[in-house]
Amino acid sequence: MIEIKSLTKQFDGHYVLDNVSFEVEEAKLVVVLGPSGTGKTILLKSMLRLIPVDQGEVYFDGKNILTLSIEEVYQIRKNVGFIFQSSALFDSMTVYDNIALPIIEHTTIPNREIKEQIKNFLEIVGLPGREKLYPRALSGGMKRLVSIARALALGPKYLFYDEPTTGLDPVMRDRIVNLIVNLKKDYQKSGIVVTHDLETAKAVGDEIYMLKDGRIKKLARIEKGMYG
Amino acid sequence: MNLFSNIAEYAEFFVHSFFFHWNVRKHKDRILEQIDSVGIGSLPIIVIISSFLGLVTTVQLSYQLLGLLPRYFLGATVGRMVLIELGPILTGLIVSGRGASAMAAEIGTMRVTEQIDALESMAINPYHFLNFPRIFGTMISLPILTVFSEFVAIYAGGLYAHAFLNVPLSVYNYGLVRNFFSRDLFGGLLKAFLFSFAISVSGCYFGFKVKGGAREVGVATTYAVVTSCVLILILDFIVALLVFG
Prior knowledge:
The structure holds two protein chains of two kinds. By secondary structure, chain A is an alpha/beta fold.
């Protein structure tokens, strides 16, 4: 379970996150909805201590990541797969190497087994046989899928999706939405999806929050025109 | 005050990147990649520039010395100048132009495309993953490149002296050997060793500090090269004082 309590972050006196609090229960997907530029990505990165916050607490299974030593933070990060909006694939590495990297860095699994695992991850995300390609040879949607495969590499308990469907065509968007739903259903992955896309939010979210002007509010239902 | 805090930050960055978790075996492939990029990749330009360095030094020394001193002095003087000063500093500056800029651009691009955030989110320490192989690879490459550059420069000068100045290679070699002091070689290699840190740490540091986009990556690249060149000159002076002063 993830608990966020009073998370606050400001830039030059402007509150991007203002006492943000919410919870993510086991095997649930929480969507944080909001227009572009409201600080959704900052929320996700703050939760993993990728950027510093001004105050607040973020508990992963009872441990406040913001007060832990860097080694303990790394232990928590191994349990969280982060899918970046830009995909953030290493462009000097092949798809195989991108996915293998966290496994090689953190485990002693033999190469043959890693190969099998990567084959399996690529099948899960629907990109079998693409191991040898470099990111430059992939479309935006395919990069997003490889990024999800990489996030799965260490078998994390939680997945953080940063705008997973932004900038994709409707077919690819549906494919990624289905994948997110299936990962939760079949693999019990809890997580947070931040998006500005209402359709994605409705399709994947067990609970939906709205982030606006630094404040977060739980929504009972989504209505068109709510951004206004 | 800002200067001091920047120096402290730079020093802290160096310590974080290089002194903790020494694990050469783990980073072996990435270190070899850097040796290939910084070292082997610099060989062609080192050959060209060192050859002309040797030629110019020989021409100028012959203009000043021949007729006043025995001919073997040409080999002696070219050799000592190249070993003590010209070889290390020129190699350092060339590698700075190639290596520091490449490192800053590569790491800076990784910063703006969230690849460094991705490393951190996967619990991979980017200081160890990105910086250590670059610093270690440059530390191995630069002294070797320097020796190679010195050899090329000295014998480019020797061949010119033999062909155009009526100084046989045997006489040139005699001067070279007669005036060889191991302190000269040691001092030059010590410089190369220290320059390697100035180059690689500057490249990584300014790359890491990038915030923004393509323009900031370009600015970081410029800062990396300028800073490493200034540091090379400062370190050159310090070693000259300590070893030859």
